[in-house]
Structures are given as structure tokens and as C-alpha cells.
Amino acid sequence: MAKVLDTPSHSLREFRILPGFTPPDGNALNVDLVTRLCRNGDGFLELHAPFLSAAMQAVTGVEMAVAIAQLGGIGILPVSQTIDDQAEKIGRVKRFKAGFQTSLTTLSPRHTIANIIQIMEETGYSTFPVTDSGEFHGKLLGVITDKDFDVRRDHACTVAERMRSDVNHGVNIQDLKEANQLMIKFGRGFLPIVDDEGKLISAVFKKDLDKHLQHPNESIDAKKRLLVGAAVSTHPEDRERVQCLVEQEADVIVIDASDGHTHYQRQMIEWIKGNYEVPVIGGNVVTSQAFDFLAEAGVDGVKVGMGIGSGCTTQEVKATGRGQGSTLLDIGPARDRHADKTGNYIPIAADGGISGPADMSVALALGANSLMMGNFFARYTESAGNLMRNAAGEIVKEYWMEGSAKASNHRRYSQLKNLFFEEGITGYVPHLGSIFEKLPVVLQILRSTIATAGCRSIQELHTEAVLEKQSPTALRDSDIHDMVPANIDHQIL
Ligand code: IMP
Q: Which range of residues forms the domain containing residue 328?
């Protein structure tokens, strides 16, 4: 007879966090939201905000990936697009900003202004170093920008005739702060840096410095470029995809599978880890056995959750899945046991069904290191779905699940293309405005909850938080009761 577990599956919403003692210096301002996303070589890839925007067509495009990384999280570009499109988007996020730029589009003095106009149209860039060879590492002769020529009259002129050759530059500067300070001293938007022989070795831009100052908690790599991840399926044909994504310098590969406890998943993990150094997050799984299985296969992070996404119909159609509270109660301790036994800490990301700060706090307190969200991010202007007006005249954002007919991500669900059945719906979510305005408040709510729990970090919350399961009546008390919200005009009598 099949085994039936005695305990029911628990959702995140059944738990509340008990307050702990908050010392005078333990308020929300002193709470740090730094967290581990996954292992990365001997250390960890860390985030300043515990968020991943979901690998879904409706959620993560370039705009969302840039925004979420600027705010301290990371965007995961979905697998349900062509390899070229996904790789191109990774490249765009990686090029969005940098510290030292070491490969800029460079011109030779023999180029014509007509050439530049075409390059500007193709790349969107407006500042170009000029070297003797026209290669980035050639001898620096000058700089030309869109302000140095007349687009209507100068087509036939050469770069040599229009470039500025009295260029302020740095020599052999390795320290980014020093380079930025020199750029500010010269009052320029761009500072080329040359070696002793005058050959261009790097450059810094004021716009990159400005972006950093605006977003001090941004997620960045060693070259100060934004972090970005990419999803792949377990299918062997996606090995070529992995290769392209690694070439574009994706910071993490996330295996996108609704059920990660499979032979195919292990094969893909072993293949990636055998060929590349890029960190790999495996998943999705919902049992401690499956966590151990992925850990043994060599993953650097594990994504957990099945059947609990906001528009997911997996449990309805296939009767498979688990409440996210129970998943974390099972897998959090498995991660800690594995770390105690092997010295290898493998962070976990809770994925699906997290709709606001209360769910986020409970998931973190139950052991999640980070949180992947689709619906929550789809509501912001920066998500990939269209902004629309519905029949009631409300402004909404499109949101469709990866298992819907619209996304048809059959590889995520190990389905056959010609016998595809839906595991998710297509719909809309309210539009909330820009993520840049709204997310800082959500981060503040998380800090505040962690402070109330008497903790100062997500790591401390994992060991010190005390949670309590709520009875149905306790849950009813936690909702608004015995009064009507003031959302209609009333007259004083
Ligand atoms: P949400 O944040 O609750 O909307 O859940 C998003 C998560 O649901 C994604 O990150 C996926 O793990 C999962 N998901 C996406 N599409 C589907 C689907 O069609 N069926 C089931 N789960 C899905």
C-alpha cells in the first residue's frame, strides 16, 4: 500500500513569527539583508536583497534583470526563448554598467563620420576612443563623441578631422576609485587609461559611477558589472545553450525543471560542472531526499517549491506538489545536516507562492536563503509582460505561467511537444508602478520583521527565529475583523 504521511502539508501563510528581544541597536536600520544565493568556487555568490525575479517570459527581460540587480537581487532570464535571444539579453545586462571598461567599440582615424553614424545607430553608444589601429588596445590618438560633428553636413569627413586629440587620460591606473576621482577632477564624462607606451588599456565612464552611487546595494561581479542568471532545461540540446550563456558571462545557471529529482537533472548538473566553473542552481525539489540527491550531483544552490505558484495548476491536474512551509521545514534541516557532514553549505531559494512581505519573512525564517518570485515582480512596470487596461478600466500587467499554452515551456514540465497539457494559466496582475519606488519599502518591512524577531540578519533568523503554526481562528484574528475599511466616502451625521 502506498505510504501516507500523517502530517498535513503546511503553507507559508499558516505560520507567524514570535517577537524576540530587540536591543537598542537592534532596530530595522541595523538589520542586514545580505544573503547567500549559491556557492561560487570557495565562497558564495551573495546578494544584498534576497530576491530572484522568476525565469518566466512574463517577468524577466533585460529591464527587470537590470532593475532587480540594481536593487540588490538578481534576475534569471527564462529558457523559453531562443538561445540567441537569451544570450543577447545576458550580454545587454552585463554591458549595462562596468567599473573599468576593457573592450569598447573603438574607431580608427580613417573611419568616416558616416561610419560613426551607422555604428551609433547599431550600438546606441555616443562616445568612442580613437586608436591608430582602430582596435581597443591600439595607441590612443583621441576621442570622438556625437557632439563633435554635424550629422547633416559631415558625412564625408574622417574621424581624424573631427576627433579631439587633447584628451585627458590616466596612465596605468588599476584602482577604480583613483580612476573615478581623476575623471571627476577633469570634469569629463569619460576617462581613457593608457599604459606607458600610450596604448589604451581601459576606460571609465561617469554614467557608470553615477549608477553605482544611485544604487549602493547593487549586485555586481568583480568587474563591477551587474549580476544576471540564466535558466536552462535538462534536455541535452540545451548544452549548446549553456555554452553560449557562459560565453556571455552569465553569473549563474539555473536549471528550470518543475521536478528536479530526476536522472536528467543529474546528467545536466554533472555535465555543466564537468565543463564549466559557473555556479549551478538545481531544482525544483520539495523533499529532503531530493535535496541530498542534488547535493550529491554537485549543485551550488537548490531551488525549492512545486505546485504552489500563483497561477499554477500542477496540483489540480497532476496531484503532485507540496505546501511551501512543509517543503522548507523538510529541506532547511537537510541543508544544515549536509553542511555539518561535509562542510559544504548549499543555499536554498524558495520559489513560488510568495506574494508579499509576510510570506517572504516566513519563508526566510523557515530557512530559505533567497526567494524567487514571479507574480510579485510581474506587477512592476519593469516586468516583461505588457501594461494593459482591462474591461473594468483598471491598469494591469499581463502575467502568464510557463506551463500555460501561451508560454508552452514543455521542457520545464518534461512534456511532449505534441501532447502538451497545461500546468498553469494566463492572466493579469494589478500594476503597482515602478519597482524602484516600491521595493525599498518591502525591504524595509523585511528588516523590520527581522528586528522584531530579535535578529539582525537572515542567517541569524535561520537559527534564532521562533515560529508558531496558527489555528484557523488565530488566522482569522490576524485578518481585519469586526470593522469595515474606509474605502467608501461616509458622511458625518
Ligand atoms: P509565483 O511567484 O507564485 O507566481 O510563482 C512563480 C513560480 O511558479 C516560478 O518561479 C516557477 O517555479 C513556477 N511556475 C511557473 N510557471 C508555472 C506553471 O505553469 N505551473 C506551475 N508552476 C509554474
A: 12-98+218-477
Q: Does residue 351 line the site of ligand 1, with CB under 6 A?
A: yes
441 located within any domain: yes
The pTM for the full model equals 0.89
Has residue 189 been placed in a domain?
Answer: yes
The grid cell for 211 is 549608477
**486 belongs to a structural domain:** no
Give how many domains the chain has, as a whole number: 2
**Sign of CA pseudo-dihedral 403, 404, 408, 414:** positive
In tens digits, the chain (493 residues) has pLDDT values of 999 999 999 999 999 999 999 888 889 999 999 999 999 999 999 999 999 999 999 999 999 999 999 999 999 999 999 999 999 999 999 988 888 888 788 999 999 999 999 988 887 888 999 999 999 889 999 999 999 998 888 888 999 999 998 889 999 998 888 999 999 999 888 999 999 999 999 999 998 888 888 999 999 999 999 999 999 999 999 999 999 999 999 999 999 999 999 999 999 999 999 999 999 999 999 999 999 999 999 999 999 999 999 999 999 999 999 999 999 999 999 999 999 999 999 999 999 999 999 999 999 999 999 999 999 999 999 999 999 998 888 999 999 999 998 888 887 877 788 888 889 999 999 999 999 999 999 999 999 999 999 999 999 999 999 999 999 999 998 888 888 877 767 778 8
**What's the gap in Å between 427 CA and the centre of ligand 1?**
13
Report the atom number in ligand 1 closest to the C-alpha of 256. 12
* 294 and 159 fall within a common domain: no
d(CA 33, CA 357): 13
What lies within 8 Å, CB to CB, of 376 at 6+ separation is: 354, 355, 356
287 and 340 in one domain?
yes
Location of C-alpha cell 556571455: 248
User: Is 225 part of the annotated catalytic residue set?
Assistant: no
Q: Which of 11, 53, 258, 284 to mutate to test the pocket of ligand 1 (most atoms within 8 A of CB)?
A: 258
Based on the fold, state whether residues 187 and 167 are members of the same structural domain.
yes
Question: 241, 312, 335, 447: which one is catalytic?
Answer: 312
Q: Is 447 considered catalytic here?
A: no
Pocket lining: 375 vs ligand 1, CB cutoff 6 Å: yes
Ligand 1 pocket, residue 401 CB under 6 Å: yes
Cα Rg, the chain, nearest whole Å? 26
**CB of residue 54 inside a 6 A radius of ligand 1:** yes
How deeply is 21 buried, as exposed, middle or buried, from its count of CB atoms within 10 A (0-12, 13-18, 19+)? Answer: exposed
Atom of ligand 1 nearest to the CA of 377: 2
CA dihedral 77, 285, 310, 401 (to 10 degrees): 40
Same domain for 40 and 121, yes or no, is no
The count of other CB atoms within 10 Å of the CB of residue 2 is 3
Question: Are residues 142 and 22 part of one domain?
Answer: no
